[in-house]
Amino acid sequence: MRKTAATGERSDDELLQMSTRGDEEAFLTLYHRHQGSIFRFALHMSGQRETAEEVTQEVFLALLSESRKYLAERGDLQAYLIGVARNKVRRQIRQTRGFASLARTEPVVEAASFEALSREQEARALRAAILSLPPNYREVVVLCDLENMDYAHAAQHLGCAIGTVRSRLHRARMILGSKLRNGMRCRV
Amino acid sequence: MIGQDELKQRLRELAETSPQGASAESEQRLLGIFRARQRRRRAWKYLVAVAASLVIGGASYVIWHAQGRMPAAAESSYVNPSGFLALPYAQSDVPLEHAVVVRVNISPAEAGALGVPFDPGAHRKISADLLIGQDGMARAVRFVP
User: Fold this and answer.
1) Which chain B residues are Cβ-neighbours of A123 within 8 angstroms?
2) Are A17 and A74 members of one domain?
3) Are the C-beta atoms of residues A93 and A102 closer than 8 Å to each other?
4) ipTM above 0.85?
């Protein structure tokens, strides 16, 4: 238990070094610290839980086998991991040439009430609208609106200027608003 | 178009209701791969250590063997105080327990065959003492003036 507490307090760089030397506990600590954000990013980018699980696993395996590629002076580990996840998700998108339909990825709605059913439908529509965005726009929506990241961090994660993040986010929100309005009209 | 505030509210709700992390099965799979890698790494290290030990051992043996033979080569040209010259092919590692000295007259060509250079064109016989070991082999030669 004492060792667990010690690894929990260590920095990402220390944990990474320990992991590459074969320390399982350090690797698990690193995984628990970052897997959530990697998984959610991949999930919202791909719209598929299986893809998100696969990408998360590949990101951590790549971290172990190519740990020298991570340079602490260039940014924090999470930014590096998001960058790796981003490349892997984009590769998946290219391979599958688009995304799986929501009908295949979404479970059957089992709502307890009409209100819950309505909320679920709205969530589906929003997810579909996010997935239909171009990847550049989708990334900023996922990081800034879903992951609640500030512009500076998002810019660091995406390797672009803050102004670029701001303008992409503004444009993405406009597109989303428009798509949701059209979606609601269709349902009516 | 829906308002920006409403859109942000819906996005927040979507973030809260979405799965927050990879499944426990996924973690176990990753851990399994990590452990398998460590096992392969340890096996590889062990193989490298064994290979390195074999190389070092082999090199040590070769060096030791070469060093062990070097004095014999040096002895072959050693002239002891009695005037005997060790023959190059003599087995210096066989102890000389019972030796006899035999005086012979040999031709320059025969002296050359013993490994002692003489003018092969000369016809005069050379008088020499041969030191014969208990194995019947000539170990050394001494030329008599």
Assistant:
1) 10, 13-14, 17
2) yes
3) no
4) no
